[in-house]
Design a protein that fits this description.
Shape: globular
Helix content: 40-55%
Radius of gyration: 27 Å
Number of helices: 23
Strand content: 5-15%
Number of strands: 8
Largest sheet: 5 strands, mixed, barrel
């Protein structure tokens, strides 16, 4: 993210003539915090995960220290210690701020009487439990060892015992004990969270005010972050960033900003770096020749020319692909002479076929969203599409109602703190669909979840302070598959193949 932010500052200076640095970004920017509170944080640092995005509308960060807490609270330490809900209730005024012992107030006042940071646990150990500085340092080392030393359980049990002996209620002491064990999995010191929060705010400010710049820098810094390229481009397109495809006459190796005719804003032009199989040294040689006025595709090898054709960087995908495979041949084995004199022609690809080739060869697609095309070309479900709810509509629907949604599977998670629960993120053309599955429901529909690229789901609508999710009741199986599709069995974990022709010869059948 530091690389991404530096590239953003450089690009802002080159494009807009404004000089920004980490220490000169305007603090407490209303547009930035508004974006954060609405969970429009795809791509930014630390608060882009599903868990963080579900917390943002509830915690509603309004200043820098709120971001420090936000960064730290969605961690195993506070979660396992049962600190998250008490903190939120106190922040929202639903629960009175209290301190279980007089000595706890100066330690926990900034976090409303709820311990969130490692430093607070250490201060409680010294000030309330009677630890010596040496014992507190041993506790710190044990918490920072992530269970490798194997002695954190004894520290937690000992501290619980001492807290109770010094007048701290048993239930609060028990939660402190659980939190210490949670820190053994992962937890933040306050200083660490503050350093991260600075980058969180900086990346959020850039996204709020320079989304095209931030996306360009983000893609030029991959691999990083929580989301793959196609999810990033789809999310920023929903934020009205215009993205232009790879093109042999306009693209560089890196993605760049490009002023388009009759447009007041800059568009993002995708670079050659996202095209499968291209080598940077060959791209650099091609660009040097192009600057001299020559488009010489034979500076690329055969596999690279084929990839450019399939990436739609050249006109007429399949014709260009065929030529790339057979650049100098005057006769083709198995074809009669009279057939060789006829120009080759291929039936046009439909939108769904083009979309899958986009994803295969450029890691993203810029045309219609995959769910739109799946509904158009591959709807094999015993349900009318009129019954579907889109992501953008869920907030306006009745909580507790069973709704039907359809989306492409993006993320499947079951974190250690979830006690066997599974969380799935689907995406439709309007945004994310957040699914919650109890263990028995996941096991029942496990085969569909693991084999289908898109899912049709029935779930009970839940809404936590503006963040909608579905408690899944059923995953609907498709009735049949089309026998002539290049896309139906598209595998999310497709195996790599060096032989492009063998992998794509289905296009010529």
């Amino acid at each position: 993210m530091l690389t991404c932010i530096r590239k953003s500052f450089d690009l802002i200076r080159e494009t807009y003539g404004r000089s920004l640095e980490l220490h000169t970004i305007p603090p407490d920017d209303p547009a930035t915090y508004s974006m954060i509170q609405e969970s429009r944080t795809v791509g930014v640092f630390q608060i882009e995960s599903r868990a963080q995005m579900s917390m943002l509308p509830r915690l509603k960060p309004r200043n820098f220290y709120d971001l420090v807490v936000e960064v730290a609270i969605v961690r195993p330490g506070p979660i396992q210690g049962g600190m998250v809900h008490p903190y939120l209730k106190r922040r929202l005024g639903l629960e009175q701020v209290t301190y279980e012992h007089p000595k706890l107030k100066p330690i926990l006042e900034k976090t409303l009487g709820v311990p969130i940071f490692q430093e607070q646990v250490m201060k409680m150990a010294i000030e309330v439990a009677g630890y010596s500085p040496g014992e507190a340092d041993a506790l710190r080392r044990a918490m920072g060892a992530w269970r490798r030393t194997g002695n954190l359980d004894s520290h937690a049990t000992d501290m619980k015992k001492r807290l109770i002996e010094n007048g701290v209620p048993a239930d609060f002491s028990e939660r402190i004990c659980e939190q210490i064990l949670g820190f053994g999995e992962y937890g933040f010191p306050e200083s660490h969270a503050a350093s991260f929060a600075l980058l969180t705010y900086a990346s959020s400010y850039l996204k709020a005010h320079y989304p095209e710049v931030f996306l360009c820098s983000l893609l030029n810094s991959l691999p990083m972050g929580f989301y793959p390229m196609h999810m990033l481009t789809a999310a920023f397109q929903r934020e009205h960033v215009k993205i232009l495809p790879v093109h042999t006459e306009n693209s560089l190796w890196d993605h760049r900003l490009e002023k388009t005719p009759h447009e007041s804003h800059y568009a993002l032009r995708l670079g050659f770096r996202c095209v499968k199989n291209l080598q940077k040294e060959h791209v650099d040689a091609f660009i040097r020749k192009r600057e001299e006025g020559m488009i010489d595709l034979y500076l690329f090898n055969q596999d690279e020319r084929a990839a450019l054709a399939m990436a739609s960087a050249l006109d007429q995908r399949r014709e260009a692909y065929w030529k790339a495979l057979n650049p100098h041949r005057t006769e083709l084995q198995g074809l009669r002479e009279e057939n060789l004199r006829r120009p080759l022609s291929f039936p046009p690809l439909n939108e769904l076929q083009s979309m899958f080739l986009d994803l295969e060869f450029t890691q993203t697609t810029l045309n219609k969203h995959p769910t739109v095309l799946m509904r158009k070309y591959r709807w094999h479900y015993p349900v009318s599409q009129d019954r579907l709810s889109l992501s953008k509509d869920l907030r306006r629907q009745t909580i507790g109602k069973n709704v039907l949604v359809f989306g492409v599977v993006q993320i499947v998670q079951s974190p250690p703190t979830a006690k066997g629960m599974f969380f799935i993120t689907l995406e439709d053309e309007t945004g994310f669909l957040n699914l919650v599955l109890r263990p028995n429901v996941y096991q029942k529909f496990k085969h569909l979840i693991q084999t289908q690229w898109a899912l049709l789901v029935v779930g009970e609508l839940q809404n936590n302070d503006g963040y909608a999710s579905l408690l899944v009741k059923q995953v609907v199986a498709p009735e049949r598959k089309s026998p002539n599709s290049i896309a139906v069995d598209f595998d999310r974990k497709k195996s790599e193949s060096k032989d492009i022709y063998a992998k794509n010869q289905r296009l010529f059948h």
